[in-house]
Design goal:
The protein is an alpha+beta fold. Helix content is 17%, strand content 23%.
């Protein structure tokens, strides 16, 4: 006949309050950022948009402009969607 031993799991030490707060801040500040899309890029006088015109663009996407005949580009030819806003336009 065998014997029965009583087994009790080891309880981990309690988490310090500072460590819990730091972990919480890290989780929320890095893991919960909302990505905002952009609406259609603005119309630029005497320029054409290369590629299809969409109603919504994902954060981080880009579009490129080109000039109509006899016009010159003043500013960047590519603009980027950054958190719901377009970067500097030509």
């Amino acid at each position: 006949v065998g014997t029965m031993d009583k087994w009790e799991p080891e309880v981990p030490p309690p988490l310090e309050a500072d460590a819990a707060i730091r972990a919480s801040k890290t989780y929320h500040s890095e893991g919960m950022k909302m990505q905002q899309d952009c609406t259609s890029p603005p119309v630029v006088q005497n320029a054409v948009l290369l590629g299809p015109l969409l109603t919504s663009y994902k954060n981080g996407s880009s579009v490129e402009y080109s000039c109509q005949s006899y016009h010159f580009l003043d500013g960047p030819s590519t603009v980027y969607c950054k958190q719901g806003n377009w970067t500097e336009q030509p």
